[in-house]
Every structure is written in structure tokens, then in C-alpha cells.
Write a structure and sequence with these properties.
Alpha-Beta Plaits; 11-stranded mixed β-sheet; 29% helix; isomerase
């Protein structure tokens, strides 16, 4: 006999009762003035109302009991982002280091000092002194030519005494004592390998926060970093990142200062990452407190692996609270109802920090935007209140918000329509196969670039690389002659926009119907405000997990990890301890009632949500926050 974890040890929240910013439920309970009942965003609110195989039984379990129960590894070009070493590597050899006449820029002065400069680069000299010409133009040309010779050379014009002639001091990695250095060190890497690529390991942090922290330590603009997509906060994740003109030694030196972050597995590459430059993500997930028989679990996994799941957008895309739904804000923005949008953004919710909530409540009663803005730190609400103080509740006030946030609202509405259409589609009779008039793209999940609009908007905040050379294929139309030959995994649904095609069947008419209910027409998607215009895109209706592995384990302590992270394995290797298995609980033999957990490994294509995949598998998952 097996037992479920005691109620006192966990918070039983349904999967649709999630605080989407990852705050603990205890934090929510500190806000007694906000009614929690009816304040939590539900699956129904987000249009998630169907299963691909509702007839297949699921099983009860707890998801994300600990963030160590949710491990995500990025997959790119067949390579899994795995942290196996923290050691820096030597910068790439540069063809610039061997100086010859062809790379002296035809500068006769540098040709004269060619031998001395080569000795400087090889470490045989501390510096080279070149008489400085009187002409500033000529001196500038020499400095530029030196920089073109090698990234390891720096130069400055020196005049030691008033009556003494000036000279150009050329130095390498070290400088003689008493000699003035240039104000800024040159960190440029070899022209052929300008970017350091590394694996970013993080625990309990989102990608944006992690990048900001790294850029702060390195004193760089966050735009120097590039990555393929954002990863969950309440999870252990590894992903690839590139940074321009930063030596791996500088990055590796940060590891001793980082909490919940590590960087490693360095290499040098000629180009940065772009948003969407990944194949997908590999998940290792622990589902705890299961008590269904093994046969039920195995049958559910077999069906899930064979048929897949409805590729819904997850709840985290739609805001923190049912009182201030991000898609409702987006709806008002599309309709040009600036006052309504602003009022929704400023509604106090359970997800607010106490100081922010109190300020919102004060603004509702006083209406003094300037005074309220002065009371809170730099938050979204502060920017908006400052905008209201200057412009009133107008578009100009909304434009005080970061551009990425303004776009997130309308993308959320777009995602809601997609979810609602998908629910209607899978709840139809004969929904398990393609239908005449559907749109399809062969191998849709892999063929679509799937640059997630939310990721793209977040990247805009950091000025990261937001596009690659990927192009969206044009979908074909399922006909009465070929519908039986089209797998459901090839069927795509458009996100509403002015540049997409719609299904030529009842499904296509639903778009117009649902948007009309919201007071929005197709023309509104060509918004006069550029940030709110929606060209649209396509998303696979159904996705199948691949490379599925699972095992069922018994355990006694709910707080003991059942899988190991990359960092745990790395530490064990460094300490020469066995990292092959989690140590077994020796007391298991003495108890008749251990807990049971399903340890599930699988891969999903980019822009698909593991929580949505687990929802289809279990039918009754409880997500703990």
C-alpha cells in the first residue's frame, strides 16, 4: 500500500490555480485585503478546455513540489546544453598575431617597426616606442593601423616633459612600471571568433534576470548577450548563451560570486545566437505523490507518447491574476480604449508586492498619480503613474511602459484566441484527424520557426538578437481528397493577424466570431500604433513528446531530490564521489507505506509547454507553487 504526501506538507492547488510569477503561496496570504477566491487565473479563463484523448485515464500527482523536480535542458543542433566543466579556455588564435607587410595598412612607420612589434606580441618586449609625427592625422592613422594589427595591442601618445618630443607607446598584455596605460582595455576577441559561447546554468531565476546579473558584474550592456529563448524561473535550467568580445576567463571568474547561477562549457564562435536558434528542450520532471497502479500510469504514458497533446499556450502567458488578465488589457489596447487598459493594469491584485498594492489602492482613492509614483521603486506601475501624471490616461501614458510589456499584452490576447479555437477544434466530433479546409504544414512542429512572441518581446528589452534567417512556410489546405493522409500533427492554427491565412472551414469562421464578441475585427489587427499591430503566425495544433523515458521510484522524505542536476554531478566529479545514482533511502525496507513518484524524461519542440504536456498525461495534475 502506498500513501500520498500529508496535506500539512504541501499546498494543494489545482493546475489552474497558479501564481504565475513563482511566488510562494505564503506570500499571497500576506495580502489579506485581496480576496483570493475568484482571483486566480483558471484554465478556462485562458481558453484551455479540452484534451486530445479525454477517454484515456490519467492519474493524480503533484508537479513542482520543489524546483529541483523540474529540469530543463536546451537542445540546439542536436547538442544538449549540459554543464560539465567550469574551466575557461584559451582565446582563439588570431591570424592577426603574425605581422607582415600585408596587414600593416601600408603604413611605412609600422613597417619599420615590424620586428619590434612581433617581439612585443611574443612577450620578448614590454613595449615599443614610436616617434610621434607632428600631424594629428598621421598619428591617428598609426593608432588605427596598430589596432588593425592585433587585438592584443594598445597604443597611446605620450609626452613625458614639456620640451621633450612625444612618442607613441605601444604595449601588449603587460606594461612597464611607471608607464601610463590607456584608459580602456581592449577586450576584443579574434575577428573570426568574436563571440564566447557558454552554457548558462540557473536555479530559481528567469533568463532575463540572469543575463542582467551577468552584464552587471561584467559592466556590459545586456545587449552584448544573446540566447535562443527564455527559460522558466521555478526550475533548474541550462541553455546556450553567446556574449560579444568577452574572454572565457572573465566569465569563469564570476562563478565564485554567483548564487544560483553557473557558467561553463566555453567555446568561441564566429556568430551570435538568435532568438529561435534551438531545436527544443529536454525535460526531466518528477511527479510526486502518485498512487495509481503502475499499469494505469504505463498505459497513460503510452497513449501520450503515441498521440501527443493539444499545444496550448500555458497559463504563465496570461498574467498573474484573474482580476487583471493580460489578454483583457491587450483587448482594450487593440480597441484603442486606453483608459480601460490603464485601469486594468492598476487594479490591486494578490500577486503585487505589498508596497505596489498599497500604492495602487491609494491611487484608486486619491487619483494623485505623481504622489503615488513617488512612493514606489522603479516598477511598471511607477512608469505608468508617471505617464498618467504627465499625460492623463492616454496613449502617451501607456507609452511610458517598456515597449516589450506593451507588446506582451496584445500577444496575450492573440494567444487566448488561439487557445479558444484549439479547444473548439479538439472538442468537435471526429477531431482526431485532419478535416477538409484545415491548414497544414508538413512536420509542423519542426518546420515552423516558432519565434515565440513573448520571448521576442522580452529580448527587445535587452536589445538582444531577435531574428534569424528562418522563414515561415506557407501552409497548404487540406482537401476532401487528401484529408485521410494528413496526420493531425501537421495541422496548424493561425494566431490571428493581418498577414496569415485562416482555415477554410468552420474553424476559420470561429476566429471572426470570437473576435467579434470582443469588439475586434480583422482590420483592428493592422493597428495604427505600430507596437500593437499583429501580423500573426502559425502554431501546430498537436505536438508529440519524443525520446520518452520514465521510471517509478519510492521515497520517504518529500524534500529529498530524486534526480540530480548538472551542478550536483559536476561537484561530485570534482570531489571524486559517485554521481551515478541518487542514494537509496535505507529506511524504505522498514516501512510499508512509502510515497511514489514518476520520473519522466522527454523532449518537446521549441515554444511548447511542458506543463501543458503533463496536463494531457495526468488529467488531474496538481501544480505546487
Amino acid at each position: 500500500m502506498y500513501m500520498a504526501e500529508p496535506e500539512s506538507k504541501r499546498a494543494r492547488l489545482s493546475v489552474d490555480a497558479v501564481d504565475c510569477d513563482g511566488r510562494a503561496i505564503e506570500d499571497i496570504e500576506l495580502l489579506p485585503n485581496i480576496s483570493e477566491q475568484n482571483a486566480i487565473l483558471t484554465e478556462s479563463d485562458a481558453g484551455i478546455e479540452g484534451y486530445l484523448r479525454p477517454e484515456c485515464p490519467g492519474f493524480k500527482c503533484i508537479l513542482k513540489n520543489r524546483w529541483e523536480d523540474f529540469i530543463v535542458q536546451e537542445l540546439a543542433n542536436g547538442e544538449l546544453a549540459t554543464l560539465t566543466t567550469l574551466d575557461p579556455i584559451a582565446p582563439p588564435a588570431s591570424p592577426e598575431e603574425n605581422i607582415d607587410e600585408s596587414n600593416t595598412g601600408n603604413n611605412p612607420i609600422l613597417e619599420t617597426y615590424k620586428v619590434e612589434l612581433e617581439e612585443l606580441l611574443s612577450g620578448k618586449r614590454d613595449c615599443v616606442k614610436i616617434p610621434a609625427p607632428e600631424s594629428k592625422v598621421v598619428r591617428t592613422a598609426i593608432h588605427k593601423a596598430l589596432r588593425s594589427l592585433s587585438s592584443k595591442l594598445s597604443s597611446t601618445t605620450v609626452k613625458e616633459e614639456i620640451d621633450s618630443p612625444s612618442y607613441i607607446l605601444v604595449s601588449g598584455t603587460s606594461q612597464p612600471s611607471g608607464v601610463r596605460c590607456p584608459k580602456r582595455a581592449n577586450h576584443r576577441l579574434s575577428k573570426g571568433r568574436r563571440y564566447c559561447r557558454f552554457v548558462l546554468y540557473k536555479e530559481g531565476k528567469d533568463t532575463i534576470s540572469a543575463i542582467r546579473l551577468l552584464s552587471s558584474y561584467l559592466r556590459l550592456n545586456p545587449g552584448y548577450f544573446a540566447y535562443a529563448g527564455t527559460k522558466d524561473k521555478r526550475a533548474i535550467t541550462t541553455q546556450f548563451v553567446t556574449v560579444k568580445d568577452v574572454d572565457s576567463k572573465r566569465l569563469a571568474a564570476l562563478n565564485s560570486r554567483l548564487q544560483g547561477l553557473r557558467v561553463g562549457n566555453f567555446s568561441y564562435v564566429p556568430t551570435p545566437l538568435f532568438l529561435g536558434d534551438l531545436d527544443g528542450n529536454r525535460f526531466t520532471i518528477v511527479l510526486r505523490s502518485i498512487y495509481s497502479p503502475d499499469c494505469i500510469i504505463t498505459d497513460a504514458i503510452d497513449s501520450w507518447r503515441s498521440n501527443g497533446f493539444v499545444n496550448y499556450y500555458g497559463l504563465q502567458r496570461f498574467g498573474h491574476s484573474a482580476k487583471s488578465k493580460s489578454f483583457e488589457i491587450g483587448k482594450h489596447l487593440l480597441r484603442g480604449e486606453w483608459t480601460h487598459a490603464i485601469d486594468l493594469i492598476l487594479i490591486p491584485t494578490f500577486a503585487d508586492l505589498p508596497v505596489v498594492r498599497q500604492t495602487k489602492e491609494e491611487f484608486l482613492t486619491s487619483g494623485d498619480a505623481a504622489a503615488c509614483a513617488a512612493k514606489i521603486p522603479s516598477t511598471v506601475e511607477k512608469y505608468l503613474l508617471q505617464g498618467i501624471a504627465k499625460h492623463g490616461k492616454t496613449l502617451n501614458a501607456l507609452q511610458a511602459l517598456p515597449r516589450n510589456l506593451r507588446q506582451l499584452y496584445v500577444h496575450s490576447y492573440q494567444s487566448l484566441i488561439w487557445n479558444r479555437i484549439a479547444s473548439r477544434r479538439v472538442n468537435q466530433s471526429h477531431a482526431g484527424h485532419a478535416q477538409p479546409g484545415d491548414l497544414y504544414i508538413q512536420n509542423a512542429a519542426d518546420s515552423l520557426p516558432q519565434i515565440d512572441a513573448v520571448d521576442e518581446a522580452l529580448c527587445l528589452e535587452l536589445n538582444s538578437n531577435t531574428s534569424s534567417n528562418a522563414t515561415t512556410p506557407v501552409p497548404s489546405i487540406v482537401t476532401a481528397e487528401n484529408y485521410q493522409d494528413i496526420p493531425l500533427t501537421d495541422v496548424v492554427l493561425p494566431l490571428p493577424g493581418f498577414a496569415v491565412s485562416y482555415p477554410q472551414n468552420q474553424c476559420g469562421r470561429w476566429y471572426e466570431e470570437l473576435m467579434k464578441e470582443d469588439g475586434i475585427c480583422q482590420q483592428d489587427l493592422r493597428h495604427r500604433v505600430k507596437d500593437f499591430a499583429l501580423p500573426g503566425s502559425y502554431r501546430a495544433l498537436v505536438v508529440k513528446p519524443t525520446d520518452v523515458n520514465f521510471r517509478i521510484e519510492e521515497y520517504l522524505d518529500p524534500n529529498v531530490p530524486l534526480v540530480k542536476s548538472d551542478l550536483q554531478r559536476l561537484v561530485e566529479v570534482q570531489n571524486n564521489t559517485d554521481s551515478s545514482n541518487i542514494p537509496e533511502d535505507s529506511s524504505l525496507e522498514s516501512t510499508a507505506h512509502p510515497y511514489r513518484a514518476l520520473i519522466l524524461e522527454f523532449t518537446l519542440p521549441k515554444s511548447s509547454y511542458a506543463t501543458i504536456a503533463i496536463r494531457e498525461l495526468t488529467k488531474s495534475v496538481v501544480e505546487r507553487r
